[in-house]
Amino acid sequence: LDFGKKRGIKLPADTVEGLLQHVSYNEPITLTRFLEKFTYFMPAIVTDSPASSVMWLLGMKDFYSSGRALHWAMLADFSVFPSCRGDLTPDEVVSLVNRGLQDGERDFHIKARSILCCMRHMPNWSMEVVELCKKYQNNSVVAIDLAGDESLNLSSPGHKAAYEEAERCGIHRTVHAGEVGPPSVIKEAVNMLKAERIGHGYHVLEDQALYKELLEREMHFETCPWSSYLTGACDPDFKKHPVIQFRKDQANYSLNTDDPLIFNSTINTDYRIAMEYMGFTVEEFKRVNINAAQSSFLPEKEKKELLNQLYEAYGMILSTAF
């Protein structure tokens, strides 16, 4: 609202409450309609240098204020190109976001890293995204991601070449797959793009051979229960959610918020769902947080620091593997 007013950009409402009615929602809609929500507020912050930096700093403040005992790590996953129409280049966008994250690290004592996200419908962007990952590899950026319409084939030369280059340069790789798409999308992400983590991945359970293979490989699934309900990715009955099977099988997965603004939520929302409907105990919450730390894309030294802090907070003995 603030940047929209300063720049003379008309928004669908002129109060926080009014704008939230357009941006946030609490009942299931399709993934496509969820993505449309971004069109309400993105015009106010794209092309604006202060906005690009300040929005991430404020996001870290929200993260810090959300009540966790361990204010240690957050992840910013964003697509560069929709954020750089007009006077900002993709390089400038990444630099500005890094500045906001680094200011947040200083002010709130949180480790913050970013992942640069390619979009399925724009394979011609992907190589430039990985080049930005390479440039900023030792300056906040830790990985590359791919998101968007899962019906689009991943075999595009643009995506494949970008991920091959990322692997060659030691850039970590994650892919949104199996959120609403079939297990074949997950198989493509793992085999073709060499994904180290899978965003969501719920529909892997429809291919038991693939699921067993990924369990054995300890593939990490970034699950988001509240998000999956609101986007219609899973059965709306939380007692039938794929996370329950992941829990029973001791899979390598974590609990995440996805998009707190649009979903009007915090991590506590997902924790509450897991506790009330999915049979989570305190020990399982500890386990998934350790999963998240072990599967994080932090440099090894910082990963070890994070694991040490978690094991100490949980009263556990640090594994000799770390």
UniProtKB/TrEMBL annotation:
Residues 1-312 form the Adenosine deaminase domain. The keyword Glycoprotein does not apply. It is a peripheral membrane protein. Keywords: Hydrolase, Metal-binding, Zinc. It comes from the Eukaryota. It is an enzyme of class 3 (hydrolase). GO terms for cellular component: cytoplasmic vesicle lumen; cytosol; external side of plasma membrane; lysosome. Its EC number is 3.5.4.4. Its cofactor is Zn(2+). Its main location: membrane. One of its GO terms (biological process) is negative regulation of adenosine receptor signaling pathway. It is found in: Cell membrane; Cytoplasmic vesicle lumen. Belongs to the metallo-dependent hydrolases superfamily. Adenosine and AMP deaminases family. This is Adenosine deaminase. The lineage of its organism: Eukaryota, Metazoa, Chordata, Craniata, Vertebrata.
